Amino acid sequence: MKTPFKIIQRSFAILSVLHGIGAFLGKAEAQPSRLYKEREMMVMSEGWRLYGTLVQPTQPREPASVVLLIAGSGPTDRQGNSGATVAPAYLKKMAEALAAHGIASLRYDKRGVGASRDKSLREERLLFTHYVQDAAAWIHRLRQMGRFRRIVVLGHSEGALVATLACQKEKPDALILLCGAGFPSDSLLKQQLTTNPFNRPWLSRAFSLIDSIRAGQRPGNIPAALQSLFRPSVQPYLASWFEYDPAAELARLELPKLVIGGSTDIQVNKNNFERLCTKGQASECFLIDGMNHVLVEASDDYGANLATYFDPQRPLHGLLVEKVLNFMHQLQP
């Protein structure tokens, strides 16, 4: 008997690799800050019900704008948290920062996560393109609402590629990419595996598995140390993810494109940022000094950097918020 779907745990897997191997639902609720109200929303995507939170500022800025926030890899919920421990809450923080400046946002639980969880969804059936279709469905839903003159899509980490491909389908007004990969995902995964010398005993086998999956094969006999990344039920997802070159896909879009990276990002390095900017033909690019992968200020000390992944109270890097807001304000009405 097949077991119920268990969402791909790549966010946890990558951390261990780095260590070493549409409708309104319910009633709008005013927040204590009184800066915004929240509404629960639902959209159908390929027969799946997806749930999210629409944040509406009490004093909206004109022209009325909304930002769709798309999470990174793994079982990441609408807050930007993965499970009970990895809880930087970066999507919630971004939504609050936007609302404080009169900009609406929508963030959502990914397919198979949180309120969007469905027991009939199985890991071996999940493809990267499903996340792209889900994001496109949310863009379409926001446009259908008819209350926003400008729709901007913001993707973080793996969500940057999701956002890029969804924009090709639904044509929003602008795109913002945070800490996104600039190289194809098979190359990125090799970079991440190489980061820590403790992975050295497994590198040859891991690289071989990546190359095999990239070539369309479904390798077996996965070593226990590599099961979290390459177990057979994950391989269809990896194969569908490996197909895309993020920078080449970004270059296909003719719309304002902001790319932001962090100098202390331990998951996506500066080379990725530079390639995404140049080959992706971004409109604006900023590498923020001292910002890490979860968008907060952090040193390049590995332990201290990683600790921020578990701290929901740490604020977003101030320069990140400034650059995002400046980009939004420069867009044509």
Give an overview in words:
- By secondary structure, the chain is of the alpha/beta class.
- The protein has one domain: Alpha/Beta hydrolase fold, catalytic domain (Rossmann fold), CATH 3.40.50.1820.
- The chain is built from 12 helices and 9 strands.
- Helix 3 packs across helix 4 and helix 5 packs antiparallel against helix 6.
- The N terminus is likely disordered.
The radius of gyration is: 19 Å
Give me the secondary-structure category. alpha/beta
How many helical stretches?
Answer: 12
> How widely separated are the two ends?
55 Å
Total individual domains: 1
Q: What characterizes the major β-sheet?
A: 9 strands, mixed
CATH superfamily: Alpha/Beta hydrolase fold, catalytic domain
In round numbers, the mean pLDDT is: 88
Q: Return the CATH class.
A: Alpha Beta
Proportion in β-strands: 15-25%
Please give a handful of descriptors for the protein shown:
333 residues, alpha/beta, Rossmann fold, nine-stranded mixed beta sheet, 12 helices
Write the layout of secondary structure elements.
Elements: H1 10-19, E1 23-30, E2 36-45, E3 48-57, E4 65-70, H2 90-99, E5 104-108, H3 128-145, E6 150-156, H4 158-170, E7 174-178, H5 185-194, H6 200-214, H7 227-230, H8 235-242, H9 246-251, E8 257-262, H10 270-278, E9 284-288, H11 302-307, H12 318-330
Helix pairs in contact: 3-4, 5-6
